[in-house]
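A brief tutorial aside. Many learners find it easier to grasp structure tokens once they have seen a single protein encoded end to end. The record that follows does exactly this for Xylanolytic transcriptional activator regulatory domain-containing protein. Read the sequence first, then the structure, and try to relate runs of similar tokens to stretches of the chain.
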Amino acid sequence: MERETPSIVSRAPQAGRLDSPRDDRTFRSISERHDDAAESTGVEISSTVLGQDNKTGRIPFYTGESPGYTSILDVFTQPNQTVPRHILLSPNISASLSTQDREFLQYKGVFTMPQKNTFTELLRAYFHHIHPILPIVDVKVFFNCNQGVQTNEWNLLLLWSMFFAATNFVGEDIWLLEGYSSRKEMKKAMYSRAKCMYDNGGETDRVVLTQSALLMAFWHSKEDGHAQPWYWIGIAISLCQVLGLHRDPDSAKLNSAFPSRLRPIWRRLWWSCFFRDRWLSLTLGRPMRINLDDCDQPMPSAADLLGDVAELPSSITNAYIPSDLPELADYWIILLKLMSTKFYLFLVIRFVSYDDRAALVTFYSPYITKIPEHLPPAHVKAWQSEIRSQLDTAALQSNSILNDLVREKLLAFAGPMTPTLLIPAMHIHLHNCKSTDALMRRVGFNNLELCMMVMESFQDTYSAAALYRGVFLVAINKIRHHFLIESSPQNTDVSDPATSRVEPPESSAILPTVSDDALNALLDDTSFLDFWDSFNVTFDSNYM
């Protein structure tokens, strides 16, 4: 027989059944509602969870899991059931900015919008180049909320964050029109305004704060040492967990009180955090913050990315949305699945993009020294030879893709993660530069030279590219010096043009201090991709 679910009121002692007037006074004392805001919020949370507050709320709130304080409300449910963990509360009343705050924001330029043409081009660049790999903005809400609204009335925190991320993909004429001397100068200005709004704008919407943090995680600079990608991604993940985005609101049963329109964007936000978390973990060699065993938010589908776009008027779609977004949405889902997969030694993988070639090199590299158990000693050399062959193949295919990008003049559209994707292939080419075979050595230098030229072209946009190039220049010079010393004067192969064409960095390049341990790790045949651990530059604090 099912037990009746009692309400809070039915659980309260009845006045006529109190043992004494003192009990009555005690009950009245603890049951009185005070005007304390925190206490009122607690009452609203309990009432909403138990379905006793029918007010229309719009602010998502996550009550947390057991043994959190709200789990005590589970006693009011049927056996083996829990109360909803995702609810909507009344919106907070935002405090108005003081005159001093507004004057400061005005001084920092956050109320000064770009020219109309720049405004349009930045939005177009954002939805063409950022949105397909980081679909964190609800396109329908973004455009519907801002139709007929003056540009200075948009959500400025989100807008400047989007402009900052999009600056990489606008033409030179745009930043010249705005009075900037370089793309980097314009990026710095956009980021400065976004961060100023984040710190001083009084934004209370945690979804907007999460979106902004994810976008500002593309910032790299020595001047802002603590606020780097690792910092911003940590904030975004924390905000997502506060909102409960890592948990499925329908995990126990359909949460009818939670709007279905929020589910797609929540899935996209959480899995965008996952995507960036995995990427930075690979780049920086740091532990992943997100453990999928602690999460049950379903992976988004391509339909989640396309649903809000389908509701836009054709005028907006044609002006801002890429026509191949359906294909790009499929690619993003494939990338998420790839990043959430646990790779094993004999897993067969078919790769098609530059990202995948870099992943292939990263996948094979450990098995140069990690010999399979029970492999007969007589087969070890053959095993290592096969792995090296696979590494060389992946690195050469990476160069082939680079050639295509250069020929088609597509490097200008490379994303902020592209310089890092070059590193695995460059590492393989660098090891070939050490070959005792003169022809193989020259081939290695030629292949590495292409990567170095491409990396040099990225330096004007991405500071990390200058760092990477500086590290490899030191290693190249050490190899070249080694062969020049050990070779006889008659042996001209060691001073071949392939080595001499790798020019020293210009004054704009960043030359890091590379320790002997780091350099030896970079050049060691058995330490593929591990040299960052001993690299004595504060890598992420300056460039990532």
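Self-check: The chain has a mean pLDDT of 76. If you spotted this yourself, you are ready for the next section.
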